[in-house]
TrEMBL record:
Keyword Membrane included in the entry's annotation: yes
Protein name in the entry: Energy-coupling factor transporter transmembrane protein EcfT
UniProt KW Coiled coil keyword: no
Transmembrane segments: 32-60, 72-93, 100-121, 230-256
């Protein structure tokens, strides 16, 4: 499960974790690579069946991901809204009818969920190690990703602090929806200022430690096992099965057709 400790986000997995934490045992680089393969492979599919097959399989993995369902639902709200808005926009203005609109919405969810599961089920430090050591990503962007994941709980705490500080000063909407919107954007601007200051400090600290200037030693080794290879290989296999099912059902529609 995800634990909030100070200003960090960590993934605590018991040593005797069973099937419920199966996904957390894979290398984060393997999970991200599999999610990327699924995302790229689903881009040409404009029908709802292909994306639905992939989405169903990924949803079946959720119980063994080690991720709290409430946390996953909260983090997935933006993608649900994105899928819903895609459905509505394509229904109103698209030229492919209801099937095309549903296919676009399902494709958005099928692309987003694997990446979300891969990120949330991975320890940030292990993820950065995997990106650098296994996927050969430059250190600067990898450490930037690590810093961003570490700062998510800190930004949430700062949002609560800003809200409580304004409440203590008697600044409230008072039932006025227009004022409530103005106060929300005011808090959002304050959070943006704090995040920029924090990002500047992190960038200065990374420059002081000479990130990206040459080879560095590793505190930990990012291990890649047979299961990680099988996970990456399962992604194109799932895509092939999804396209085959859609083709056999006579529903396969590609973007360029």
């Amino acid at each position: 499960m995800n634990a909030h400790r100070g200003d960090t986000l960590t993934l605590d997995v018991p040593e005797d974790a069973g099937a419920r934490h199966l996904l957390t045992r894979f290398n984060p680089a393997a999970k991200l690579l599999a999610a990327l393969v699924l995302a790229l492979g689903l881009v040409p599919a404009a029908d709802p069946v292909t994306g639905a097959v992939v989405l169903a399989v990924v949803l079946a993995v959720v119980p063994v991901s080690g991720v709290d369902r409430h946390t996953l639902l909260v983090l997935g709200v933006p993608f649900l809204l994105m899928g819903g808005s895609t459905l509505v926009v394509n229904l109103l203005y698209g030229d492919q009818g209801a099937d095309g609109a549903l296919g676009a919405a399902v494709r958005v969810l099928a692309i987003a969920l694997p990446g979300l599961l891969a990120a949330v089920s991975s320890d940030p430090t292990d993820l950065a190690d995997g990106l650098v050591q296994r996927l050969r990503m430059p250190e600067r962007p990898a450490m930037g990703i690590l810093a961003a994941l570490r700062l998510v709980p800190l930004l949430a705490d700062q949002w609560r602090t800003i809200t409580l500080a304004r409440r203590a000063r008697g600044i409230s909407a008072g039932g006025n929806p227009i004022r409530a919107v103005a106060l929300f954007f005011g808090r959002l601007f304050s959070l943006l200022v704090r995040s920029i200051r924090t990002g500047t400090l992190l960038a200065t600290a990374m420059d002081a430690r000479a990130f990206g200037t040459g080879p560095r030693t590793r505190a930990r080794v990012s291990r890649w096992g047979r299961g990680d290879t099988l996970l990456v290989a399962a992604a194109p296999a799932l895509l092939a099965a999804a396209y085959a099912i859609s083709h056999s059902a006579g529903t396969l529609v590609l973007l360029w057709t």
